[in-house]
Amino acid sequence: MTPVALDTLVPGAAAVAVSGVTLDARLVEPGDLFVGLPGRHHHGASFAAQAAAAGAVALLTDAAGADLAGGVLPLAVVDDARRAMAPVAARVYGEPACALTTYGITGTQGKTTTAYLLDAALRAAGTSTGLVGTVGFSLDGHDLGGSRTTVTTPESPELQGLLGHLVERGAQALVMEVSSHALVLGRVDAVVFDVAAFTGFGEDHLDFHGDVESYFEAKASLFTPERARHAVVNLDDERGPEIVRRARAAGLPVTTTGFGRDVDVHPVRMGPVDRGRSGLRVRVGDRELETWLPLPGEHNVRNALTALAMVAASGGDLGAAGRGLETASVPGRMQRVDLGDGAPAVFVDFAHTPQAVAAAVAALSDTHRVVVVLGAGGDRDPGKRRPMGHAAAWSADVVVVTDDNPRGEDPAAIRAEVLTGARSALGRAVEVVDGGDRRSAIATALALAGPDDAVLVLGKGHERGQEVAGVVHPFVDADVVREAWAARQQTTGEVAP
């Protein structure tokens, strides 16, 4: 990486050369510009001495941070360091987004699945593709590893450094999940997406946004000329028409998707689910194509429509895209856990909002008796706990309520809220059980399911740990399912598959 003179990036800054940018003093490398932001408990500039000792050559911060830094580093002082760092990082790393065809996906649910479907579609056409999202970072399906500072969309210095690395490795396209936090906090400010997609909207992250409308405005801000060049919008979502209206008013071309025949991309035919796959014939503009979708449920058909529409919007190869969808695998999103003959069909899914829970159960309830394992996270948006329980009980046959990530809250108190919601599904012959801790609840669900039933383990999906009282314990739902099934067979005297 060729060093860049800081005073050419920030007027009035020190005339020093920087070769990287970071927010975390623990991750500083020699030659880095350290960014000090005001925080909830500490100002980042208070760690300037630690950053300097690790090799940082300058500090980008606000006036308060400059006072705290004590002169240990040359300064670049701005009014809003958070907003300033995105374009600065982009310049330092060589404006990597300009060398990529960029696809951004936002929505309360469906981001990860759509991203993996789109990644598979692009790679099937021979496009080297980087993927950035909740599950991690990858290039052409290979995990890039590395530490991360956020759950879904990285902070702008981390993101721009990652994009620079992707370009150096030969990537031609970028598929990124764009969270509402990222839009509000400027993490993607230096990226203008060639195609931006809206998968749908529901209640989530109100602990951060405060209210539903503020959350929606964050999502809608992606569909402006400052952030996108083309919009793809799911019109089946009740907020879809509003996104379309705003995007068109801003001058963006719009491609619509959905089940109606008056949209640009829609299904012509959907075949029955066969071993977790569904046959699909789709009209994209004036063309039709056939594919098999390796994920059950109408919500996943909508995700596939979005992926195909994004390929079409960028002029990609639709034939290859259809073939690519057939090979897609999405960690923790309606992920099948094969237990062999005589076992129920078991799926693990990340659903953690009322809308996502309802969609996941509906994907299986037409063809199976469904046993759901469901919990809700602690220290996060408590208002959705009862609606999540109600959504599960509305379509499932059995709901086993358990712990998700209790974090700092009492697990039993969280379960009580979910149980209340589940028991409010009046008029349905649904069994609601307090399953206790998650491992016990999964074992209970398997015991309550027959060989023709489906067990749906919701909430954690791809996660590999469970946070209880500030400690993250190793926990992978798919692995625990297999262990519980093996233990049950030993207890009942059956032969393990």
Automatic annotation (TrEMBL):
Binding site for meso-2,6-diaminopimelate: R380, D404, N405, P406, R407, G459, E463
Reactions mediated catalytically: UDP-N-acetyl-alpha-D-muramoyl-L-alanyl-D-glutamate + meso-2,6-diaminopimelate + ATP = UDP-N-acetyl-alpha-D-muramoyl-L-alanyl-gamma-D-glutamyl-meso-2,6-diaminopimelate + ADP + phosphate + H(+)
Function of the molecule: Catalyzes the addition of meso-diaminopimelic acid to the nucleotide precursor UDP-N-acetylmuramoyl-L-alanyl-D-glutamate (UMAG) in the biosynthesis of bacterial cell-wall peptidoglycan.
Pathway annotation from the record: Cell wall biogenesis; peptidoglycan biosynthesis
Source organism of the structure: Microlunatus flavus
In-chain residues carrying the UniProt-annotated modification N6-carboxylysine: K219
Free-text description of this protein's post-translational modifications in UniProt: Carboxylation is probably crucial for Mg(2+) binding and, consequently, for the gamma-phosphate positioning of ATP.
Gene name for this UniProt entry: murE
Known EC number: 6.3.2.13
Coiled-coil regions listed in the entry: none
The protein's name in its UniProt record: UDP-N-acetylmuramoyl-L-alanyl-D-glutamate--2,6-diaminopimelate ligase
Any Gene Ontology biological process: peptidoglycan biosynthetic process
UniProt entry tagged with the keyword Magnesium: yes
The Mur ligase C-terminal domain, residue ranges: 332-461
GO MF annotation list: ATP binding; magnesium ion binding; UDP-N-acetylmuramoylalanyl-D-glutamate-2,6-diaminopimelate ligase activity
Keywords: ATP-binding, Cell cycle, Cell division, Cell shape, Cell wall biogenesis/degradation, Cytoplasm, Ligase, Magnesium, Nucleotide-binding, Peptidoglycan synthesis
InterPro entries: Mur-like_cat_sf (IPR036565), Mur_ligase_C (IPR004101), Mur_ligase_C_dom_sf (IPR036615), Mur_ligase_cen (IPR013221), Mur_ligase_N (IPR000713), MurE/MurF_N (IPR035911), UDP-N-AcMur-Glu-dNH2Pim_ligase (IPR005761)
